[in-house]
Amino acid sequence: MGKIFNTPLYPYQRSEDQDPGPATRHKVIIIGAGPVGLAAAIDLAQQDIPVLVLDDNDRVSFGSRAICFAKRPLEILDRLGCGEPMVARGVAWDTGRVFFDKDEAYSFNLLPETDHKNPAFINLQQYTFEEKLVERVRALQEQGKPIELRGKNKVTALADNGGHVRLEVDTPEGSYLLETDWLIACDGATSPTRRMLGHDFEGRVFEDNFLIVDVIMQADFPAERWFWFDPPFNRGQSALLHKQPDNVWRIDFQIGQDIDREAELEPENIHRRLRAMLGKDAEFELEWASIYTFQCRRMERFRYGRTLFAGDAAHQVSPFGARGANSGLQDTDNLVWKLKLVIEGKAGEDLLDTYSDERIYGADENILNSTRSTDFITPKTEISRIFRDAVLTLAKEHEFARPLVNSGRLSVPCTYDDSKLNGPDMEQLPRATRPGAPLKDADTGTGWLLDQTGNDFQLLGINADVPETLEVGGITIKGFQLSPTESLKTCYLGDARAAVYLIRPDQHVVARWLAYSKSATIAALRQATGKA
Amino acid sequence: MLITKPNFDHTDDFYAALIKAHDGLSKAQSDALNARLLLILSNHIGDQSVLDTALKAASSEKELS
Ligand SMILES: Cc1cc2nc3c(=O)[nH]c(=O)nc-3n(C[C@H](O)[C@H](O)[C@H](O)COP(=O)(O)OP(=O)(O)OC[C@H]3O[C@@H](n4cnc5c(N)ncnc54)[C@H](O)[C@@H]3O)c2cc1C
């Protein structure tokens, strides 16, 4: 059997849309079947919004790409019906070790939170991740959900006509035209959509090159994240080792600014580097090797008329901190419920501008964090290297210096503080679950909280009565009540005896009170749907 | 609040100890020592507003008034 990344998973098939005649109009078209486009499509389809995905390829991602998936995306994937198979397949890890020169400087543990269903991180090859998403698409199709995935369909021209977007699509059998009410561009960092519509993509480009290799080897390194600053086997540079499923190991070598790309990619050179690191007798097989430089940048807005940008098309970060695909999934999580309300005529189009606002807030946080990590890992001036090395030297003996070590601040979801969709807060309740924050998972005594939420507006009463349903302008709020378990108390009550939380379909908190009030709930829902 | 009035217990002793710590060090070693010392002291202070004022004071002598 061939490798999954060589297998056409959605081979080209002629569609009726290619027959002569006027262009077929779709509700939503997504360009790009990467992690972000597929997640958006699954989310829409499982809520019965018809969606068509176009991709210029017909298989999963090629080469060394994402491997670390954080807790929040795993929670989102649970809502999309495919989190559990990913966690079952992935390598869970929580320990990181940092080495400086020849020795270990310190180690950290991302203590697994016992009250959460999902681990802090799993490592999984992006190609497996995408394969699982495609499997989910197939399962939805079998249930008759309105989702279609067209391989070898390359979008070559675009125009937003105000009322709809018109696309020209190239296929092995020639080109055809399509129209769509809404377009989601998930076509990656080099986004042709962005270019065709003439939008900018501003930010910082880092000059250091990184040689990223995936090797298959039988090794007894533990499932930990190992990061080296200035190790003997890569002097003056950094390196990273991470375990993936199926005995695949990810190794990153920082290799500096002025390099001879071709020479670096010669197999003998890669083998020489690997032997220096892993030992003379290490036996391994190369899966991929490539050289990357990294960027941190974003579009000025993520919505332009009828086109919404998500994932790498909208923003790009360096991989330290695993924020690329992770934040892309948070984009679609934020976007899909809003788009659904707009399509169903239950909210105005302006609601989509809050997608742009909220996710730009998230992107800026990610860009800030990953820029700082990259600056720490690749100091730009002599003095920044002096301070960097001082931090690393001190870290071995002095606990205070360890938080300063920045080999990547690992992805955590952002709280949409100041979002105009947020309703009132009750400050005596725990800060972690304030309006704008994603729900924190909790053991409710009857399962995980996150498994009981999502897709709808919900009203959670803890020690408080809430109605079973409440209709507001065509939107149904679903109420549910829980008795306070220890973990609900910690995250949702604090010192209060009771609380009521209004929750968005993407599991973020809208507003919270100490007791239910119908008028306050209605006002908060209007706020959360852009009607205030 | 950043203290800008004299605050040393033993001014001359401190100064001598600071210079002595650098005895026999190369420029690179001295730079490294200074960086470590600065990080240790900054952590001791901790308060971001004090550190900000100190950074400002060190960056532009005019604002020391
Ligand atoms: C070395 C490396 C390590 C990384 N590690 C991590 C990590 O640990 N964790 C993490 O979260 N992220 C990581 N990332 C980032 C992650 O790979 C990306 O953020 C992620 O792939 C973005 O997904 P996407 O769906 O937005 O875009 P892509 O995965 O780039 O998908 C875009 C899709 O659009 C299609 N397309 C493009 N143009 C057209 C067109 N004209 N017509 C039709 N289709 C088109 C492409 O074929 C492709 O399938 C890493 C990246 C690199 C390079």
Q: What does this entry look like structurally?
A:
The complex is a heterodimer of chains A (532) and B (65). Chain A is α+β, with helices and mostly antiparallel strands. Helices cover 28% and strands 28% of the residues of chain A. In chain A, a hairpin with a 2-residue loop joins strand 21 and strand 22. In chain A, helix 1 packs parallel to helix 4 (126-142), helix 1 (35-46) runs parallel beside helix 8 and helix 2 (71-79) packs across helix 3 (83-89). The mean pLDDT of chain A is 95. With 65 residues, chain B is mostly helical. Chain B has 3 helices and no strands. Chain B has helices at 11-21, 27-45, 48-59. Chain B is globular and about 35 Å long. At the A-B interface, helix 10 of A face helix 2 of B. Flavin-adenine dinucleotide binds next to helix 1, strand 9 and helix 8 of chain A.
Class by alpha and beta content of chain B: mainly alpha
Estimate what percentage of residues of chain A fall within beta strands: 25-35%
Please tell me the total number of domains of chain A.
3
Beta-strand percent range of chain B: under 5%
Considering residues with a beta carbon less than 8 A from a beta carbon on another chain, report the largest interface and each chain's count.
A-B, 12 and 8 residues
Spatial gap, N to C terminus of chain B = 14 Å
Question: What is the oligomeric state here?
Answer: heterodimer
Order of helices and strands of chain B, N to C?
HHH
TL;DR of this structure?
Chain A has 3 domains: 2-89 and 122-201 and 296-365, 3-Layer(bba) Sandwich (FAD/NAD(P)-binding domain), CATH 3.50.50; 207-293, 2-Layer Sandwich (Alpha-Beta Plaits); 431-528, Glutaredoxin. Chain A contains 12 helices and 24 strands. Chain A has helices at 35-46, 71-79, 83-89, 126-142, 192-196, 261-264, 267-278, 324-343, 351-377, 382-397, 486-493, 518-528; strands spanning 24-31, 51-54, 68-70, 91-92, 95-100, 103-109, 121-123, 147-150, 154-160, 165-171, 174-185, 202-216, 225-229, 238-244, 248-256, 285-298, 303-304, 307-309, 315-316, 457-462, 469-472, 475-482, 499-503, 509-513.
